[in-house]
Design goal:
7 helices; alpha+beta; Phosphothreonine lyase fold; Phosphorylase Kinase, domain 1; 2 domains; globular
């Protein structure tokens, strides 16, 4: 949505649009953002990210990149592990510079295709599996938000996406310059960045990763049917649906853990629990909807309720 694309440019100044890297986050800078670059490494900044790369390295144009997400409280620990690992194995990487930057990245209306991406690694493809398994051994204990555009490896904070490693662009049907990757014929084609997993048809999925490709919960196992999306954000969605048992109309609220953060770092699940508590206290009043229990489906929490307030969602 166009509105979501504008959000990053509204965080640095309340009066007018500005570059997101101009946010006042000096008080929340991560230690890793202030560490000197090691000898033999180039150092630079890309927006809110600090980038480090072995001097003399030539990155391939594209491949499977590794994204690592993080909860606010674990960010410093995770980036320290990533820093040490990448230096040891000579892997180019970048990471968000501050807690405030991570808070914005996981906020409710940050562009959904980019949300959750705390660290990005650009490994040699021949060693991809080894790096993934080694990082998982170090990071699997950390809870982290889901990255919608990527394939999640196991149950930890490691995600993978095939895309450009360098700045490649092509012209869209609207005449805009957009991110690109190169197909086998050498032609630059769009590198679509959307809040869902999209793998180019010419890309072979590594065997070790294929098992994690479809991690979506089975919708037919839920006690309701979704008919329409009423609202969507990083925190989850609000949907119009029906109960399977009697076709009764309901509104379903979805909440993603550690995502959709507000200014107090409270996630969508925290707000969903608050809503359930409020509905509990108001139960019995005809002015408020009835609610069901909060259930967990895949990586999200769900609260079905009667549809009496559907038009207000």
């Amino acid at each position: 949505m166009a509105q979501q694309r504008n959000i990053p440019f509204s965080v640095a100044n309340r009066l007018y649009y500005d570059l997101p890297e101009r946010i006042s986050d000096s008080g929340s800078m991560l230690k890793a953002a202030k560490r000197p670059a090691p000898a033999g490494w180039s150092d630079g900044w890309i927006g809110l990210y600090r980038r480090l790369r072995p001097i003399g390295e030539t990155l391939p144009e594209q491949g499977w990149k590794i994204h690592i997400s993080a909860g606010i409280d674990d960010a410093s620990k995770i980036v320290a592990i990533v820093w040490d690992y990448c230096l040891q194995h000579q892997i180019s990487f970048k990471f968000l510079r501050s807690r405030d930057a991570l808070l914005q990245n996981n906020s409710k209306y940050w562009p959904r295709h980019a949300s959750g991406k705390f660290c990005t690694l650009y490994p040699e493809q021949k060693s991809l599996r080894n790096h993934i398994e080694a990082l998982d051994a170090r990071l699997s204990k950390y809870n982290a938000p889901y990255i919608l555009s990527d394939i999640r490896y196991a149950d930890g904070p490691i995600f993978l996406r095939y895309g450009a490693f360098v700045n490649l662009t092509c012209t869209s049907s609207y005449g805009e310059q957009i991110p690109a990757i190169r197909n086998p014929a050498g032609k630059l084609v769009p590198d679509f960045r959307r809040p869902s997993v999209e793998i180019p048809e010419f890309v072979e999925i590594p065997e070790f990763l294929a098992a994690f490709l479809d991690q979506s919960p089975a919708l037919d196992e839920l006690p309701f049917i979704i008919d329409q999306t009423l609202h969507i954000s990083n925190g989850g969605g609000v949907y119009k649906g029906r109960l399977r048992e009697d076709d009764r109309p309901i509104v379903v609220r979805e909440a993603r853990p550690l995502a959709g953060l507000d200014s107090n770092c409270r996630d969508a699940v925290h707000r969903l629990v608050n809503e359930k508590t409020a509905l509990e206290r108001l139960s019995g009043s005809r002015a408020f909807p009835n609610y069901s229990v909060i259930t967990r489906s895949g990586s999200t929490n769900i609260l079905p309720r009667s549809s009496s307030m559907a038009e207000r969602c």
